[in-house]
TrEMBL record, chain A:
The chain crosses the membrane at residues 6-34, 357-383, 389-413, 425-448. Keywords: Glycosyltransferase, Membrane, Transferase, Transmembrane, Transmembrane helix. One of its GO terms (molecular function) is glycosyltransferase activity. This is Glycosyltransferase. Pfam families: Glyco_tranf_2_3. It comes from Wenyingzhuangia gilva. CDD domains: CESA_like (cd06423). InterPro entries: Nucleotide-diphossugar_trans. The keyword Ligase does not apply.
TrEMBL record, chain B:
The keyword Transmembrane applies. Keywords: Membrane, Transmembrane, Transmembrane helix. This is HEAT repeat domain-containing protein. It comes from Wenyingzhuangia gilva. The chain crosses the membrane at residues 6-28. Coiled coil: none annotated.
Amino acid sequence: MSWQSLLFDIFSFGIMLYSIILILSYIFIGVYSIGETKYYLNKNSFTDYNAISSSSEAPRVSIIAPAYNEGATIIENVRSLLSLHYNNLELIIVNDGSKDDSLEKLIAKYDLYKTSYFVNSQIKTKPVKGVYKSRKLIYRKLIVVDKENGGKADALNTGINISSYEYTVCVDVDCILEQDSLLKLVKPFLENTTKKVIATGGVIRIANSCVIENGRLIQVNLPKKFLPRVQTLEYIRAFLLGRMAWSRLNGLLLISGAFGAFDKEIAIKCGGYDTETVGEDIELVVRMRRYMEELDLPYKVSFIPDPLCWTEAPDNFKILGRQRNRWTRGTIETLKIHKKMFFNPDYGILGLLSYPYWFFFEFLAPIIEFFGLISLAFFAYFGMINWTYFINLLLMIFSFGILYSVFAILMEVLTYNQYKKKTELLKLVLTAVLEPIFFHPFVVYSAIRGNIDYLRKKKSWGEMTRTGFGTTNKTPTS
Amino acid sequence: MIQLKPLIYLFFGTSLVLLIYMLIFLLIKNIKREKYKRWTKICNNIINNTVYSDDLNVKHHHKSIENLLLIKTFRKLLTKKIRSATVSFSGNSNNSLRKLYLKLRLDKYVIENLNTNNWHVKARAIQEIGIMKLENMYDKVYKNTNHRNELVRAEAQITIIKLVGFKGLKFLDSVTQPISEWYQMILLRELSHFDYDSFNGVDIWLKSKNTSVVIFALKLVDEYHLFELYKEVELCIEHPDEKVRQQTIRSITKIFNTTTANLFTSIFENETFNNQLEIAKALQKIGTEDDIPFLVHQLQTENIELKIILTRTIAQINPNNFETICSELDPDTYPMNLIILQIKEEITI
């Protein structure tokens, strides 16, 4: 047996084994999520959310919304956040050193004055230049913080320092929230009797092509453009299947940075958001979980399948590429920071299942795919490829991809059925067919770029990252 | 080598089956929607006649009602409509709707559902009993107040309150399963629909082994200002559970007497940080000038969050004299200089 054929056998076996495990994981996730969603929907049909909105016993919540150069829409966005159905609430807008007139607009619109607010810097942040409150009683919930630019994580940490309530809800200021989203997000904190709920999250949906008026979602439409549409499908898969299954296992690692609630005490004890990573949302959840595991405290990260938050997805490859590149770097950084947990039984599900899953199927998948392609070219050069078998393998993976997407669409139809027009459903199915051909390769490419960027920045890590945060046009979102 | 073709067929085939299932589901849903529209019209008509004309003669208006009631989906729809209308209306309309429910013999199905092992069907049946005030089913519901399924148990507890008001709280004598904060909130809301009548048992619940029962009992003390239970509540301040002690601090503040502030200051140093914050906040409401030296002394803490709350408490106890007291608070050093500035601004607004 030549070394080439030995290498080929190892390669074929490795790829096959990886594919089988990956497919089995997806099947497990898909099937396992059904129970959790069904349980939630049945239970939720009994829920009267007015109980929280009207009760003085409702937990007190601080919404933290970082803003960087959002002058064009800031007034509208703040109005939308102020109109949420919730009583025990304070809204903290953190102006992260905007170069535009965001602050001036807020001061004028909400009749703000600079207070002598003492910032208790429990988490170290860039300096706060001023804390503003409104003279008008109707805006008493609003606090505007003006600070030096330090990036999204730094802005969120400042918000946590300022907040006076026990739960913090971190939200991207340009997101559209459902009116009852806070009520739904907060409920899990009140429900658990045996485990402390440390964080909760809900489904993020794509708002492109939807009708939005006065900061409110009026009509849901499937995005007209291909890129946002394929991301809609991606989000349905990720949220309705992936996160629901991980939530049921109590192994959820990620609460989206666009809209998530945290127990403030635990978040502070963990040191708040890490400003050295671009994946601050996943990193915080992992750190909070790690903290609870190390103290051996029973806890849960909760997730609900209700669509709570609508966000605009990138509609061109340039911005999408940047986003995916950032997500990849965030994942690598988080996995690296918490490598101690890898297959470490001391961390339970987190160490034995969640971390390895993210390592093998979120971080390694694009790398394996990329090197698979290179190896394919190599073995093809030596004439060792059985093309019929190779095409069958591709077809198998392609067919499974379609099956998983169709299953996600079915779950969407059976549960929330947001896209009611017949053509929308057809387009969504068609998108499921086209995605592996036209979208997936780009995602792999962006992930590889993310890996390369990560390795490059590793040499001069801290400074470059901070400069990157400071020079971006928008506070990074994830 | 693994044979891939069967897998390809399997995946494509399953996708196709799922797609067909989805289409059939949507088609049936569409057909049902038309039928439901018709049925909804009938249901609304029946309910409107009941509410606005007090006309319970359903057969007179809808001759086919008996046949329709044999169809499970129609029955479920009508029950749901009556249920939600009963929640929305009060007084005579509410009574008429309940009479209608009984006249249509919808209650016999509730017993079937109550006996099922399907938790959400059982919970729904219990909820229905509460809304329709089917008092004859009290015992059957009561049995479920300690059910192992949280939803069934909670709905049973809520229903018992709906049926008999404050007397229904006797389930707290025996409940061993925890009552979540969420359901405690719902129970308090249910109780608020009844005129307050004195109720017994709180002293026993304050000693319960179930900490959630103790917390709920403390909330009752808080909500209904049960001054007569001061001594029993005071004992809870030594409870081993931090959350119970925290609720005790909150509740005893509502029924405080001249000794309460002293009680707080005596336990302060041995309490957890969260409970120290709670005590400091409580003293904002019940503290007197006598407590100020104690509070000033506690300002030596390294914890800034506690410093802020303590300073606020001092200011709120005597806002007019705060300026004078400030000289004792180390007003020229960080962070007290900034904290004092903030608190001064707070009390002047």
